Amino acid sequence: MQIKIGKVIQRLRKERNLTQEQLAKFIGVSTPAVSKWESGNSYPDIELLPLLADFFNVSIDKLLNYKIDLSEEKVMKIYKELESGFARIEIDLSTEEPKEEFRQDLESVKKLSNMYIEKYPKSYLLKLRICSLYQMYSYKFGKSELNDRVKETTNILEDIVRNTDDIQIKETALIILSNAYCMLEDYEKAELYLNMIHKSIGDTSVNLAMIYLKQNRLEEAEILLQNKLFSNIFNISMDCKGIINVYKNQYKELKKKLENRNFNKNAIEREMEYIKNKLLWYANLSLEIKKMLSEDKGAFFSMYVDYMELSLIFLFFNMKEEAKKALYSLKEILEKYPIHESLDVSQMRFFDKVESKNLYTFNIYTNLLIVLNDDSYNELREEPIFKDVIEKILDMEKMLKNKE
Q1: I need a surface site. Which of 126, 271, 345, 386 has the fewest CB within 10 A?
Q2: What whole-number distance in Å separates Cα of residue 33 and Cα of residue 54?
Q3: What is the Cα–Cα distance from 366 to 381, expressed in whole angstroms?
Q4: Domain hosting residue 57, numbered range
Q5: Could you tell me which residue ranges the HTH cro/C1-type domain spans (predicted)?
Q6: What's the pLDDT tens digit per position in 217-244?
Q7: Same-domain pairing of 239 and 318
């Protein structure tokens, strides 16, 4: 392996606006010695490595810079290779296990993932990308193997958190790690890792936009604020879904109390109605914001997911006709804006300065079919609209496969 410690020292020195003479003085060596390190004519003595690492506040691995750090371009190339492998695997919806003819493909992509991790053990960006794929395609492993694969990713992610110097990689790993422990129902660890993420004092984007305005950098301000608004739509949606789940649990608890004669039945029923109305209000709030800003381009904000979740909420409250209407809206969105087609966010009036790129070929149709296979839909399974939605999704899934 090629050692590039001299180039690393030179880069770190320049980042700190130090001269070779100043660095030499701090470390206790001659200026020519530093010059030789940076030119590659010699290396620092091994006993100086911890001192240099501490001085620059980096790990010794980073300082030595063995060919362990892949370029972002190379990482993305590997990521897309693995992602396309996962995307090809088909699931048997009746068992939620990989179809028999795709089991070998699954083993191949797992082996390939492990090979890359072993080949580049210190490329934390690559490890992070692979773990994100494992989480995104977790259902492709099937129920029987899911927990083992999730546990496997927690080990890799914990290694990233312990060893990377890159704050962005570390904090992204913490988010994925928290999600993984939620999947394993270890909520204490999920909370622990989420609380390790650095909490910003506040969002500086508005302040930065005001500075741009003062400098007459109008387009930069517009780009910044449009991107902030775009991301906030998804944040609002996630917050609404969280609140909806809170109210669902409260409603279930009240339902249990109805069976207990020690409680006032009328008071509980009034409270249940109040919670039901609030829950439906939050469900519609997220949807209405998306409808208004998307200008009838619902696919941009994953509105097919909102309509599916809305249908489940209506079924939760035994509102069958309303659930059917939500499925009609879902079918309409799928017909107008197929999920697999490339979407250009800048086509929308409110977000003409926002760039959005599809990094993966994720087959959302399979996920929709898995959700529709849930027992919650048993009451609608024989309804024409339910069958129409299933047929539409299957047709579009075929179109996606033909496109590949």
Answers
A1: 271
A2: 19
A3: 18
A4: 5-64
A5: 9-63
A6: 999 999 999 999 988 888 898 999 999 9
A7: yes
